[in-house]
Amino acid sequence: MKKYAYLIIVFIIPLFMASCGGEEKKVVIDNTPMISVKVNQIVANGTSPFLSVSGKVQAENSADLSTRMMGFVTKVHVNVGDKVRKGQLLVSIHNSDLQAKKAQVNAGITEATTAYNNAQKDYTRFKNLFEDNSASQKELDDMTANYEMAKARVEVANQMKNEIYAQFAYSNITAPFSGVVTSKNIETGAMANPGQPLLSIETPGSFEVIAMVPETEISQIKKNTKVGVLVKSLNKTFKGKVSEVSTSAKNTGGQYLVKIALDKTDANILSGMFTTVQFPVERQAKTALVLIPTEAIVTNGQLSGVYTVSQGNTALLRWLRLGRTFGDQVEVLSGLSADEAYIFSAKGKLYNGARVSVRN
Predict the structure, then answer these.
(1) Order of strands, edge to edge, in the sheet holding 191-192?
(2) Parts of the chain with a pLDDT under 70
(3) Which domain holds residue 333?
(4) Secondary structure class of 345 (helix, strand, coil)
(5) What is the pLDDT of residue 10?
(6) pLDDT tens digits, residue range 39-59?
(7) Which CATH number goes with the domain that contains 168?
């Protein structure tokens, strides 16, 4: 039995060694086609002496309309894009409860008014009797007290009426000013909840730009300063004037809010358009700006990155921290340096590890 065991072991060991040796000699060849790409060198822009920040257009006069009461929407009277006038009915909310309360209040007013009229007559009669010495002081005092209480009940009933009519204002949503409906967030039959935005309206023609200025530059921004505003989608620069400068960045992460009132223009400017605001002040931060085109940016949720070429000629996705936007370029705060290159365009879908060939 020992001889057989020895022969089997001797026979298996060479086979195992041969098998291992064969695996070591295997070479995996990547036959996936190469993707032709074009690369650009990082642009380090440190020549512009003026401060530029990104911003966004919004209407000077705008409002989000909501209600204080809960109820079903019986009808939405307008659509997005409709022009409305001040006081026009926009949304009706089911208000049968308010109608019942209104009827109760009106009945209470009628009852209180009748009691007041009777008390007034009694007071006048006893006052005359007292002057003729036909009524005592106590009787006049009782009639006076009754008259004053009746008068107070009428006042209470009228204030309840005012309260009910104030609630009606939240069941019938009207336009606070003349303008255009810019959004509709509710439909007929839906449930309206307190504080829920139902409609948004704004006055067209008068626009302002909201810009965020870093703390290193805010001390130079003064009210009434004239600035240039580039509206990117229109590729036009408009004139404006600083109308408001925030003095706190407590809730804006070190960025100070600045409002710029745009001059009147016939251009088709719309709320939400992105801008670049050029301030006529010298930049305090002297470090060069690292800029790349926005079309080269790759986004994944809240992450932004760009593809670069590795030493092995494969695509490598680098995540970036971005800053301000300057026209069609965006500032790179970290992730790339001024001596590196990035993939600007590709003839195929890029992914991490994809084989690439750089073309001129």
Answers:
(1) 172-174, 89-93, 71-76, 191-192
(2) 1-31, 43-49, 252-254, 283-289, 324-327, 338, 360
(3) 35-46+288-358
(4) strand
(5) 41
(6) 888 755 555 567 778 888 999
(7) 1.10.287
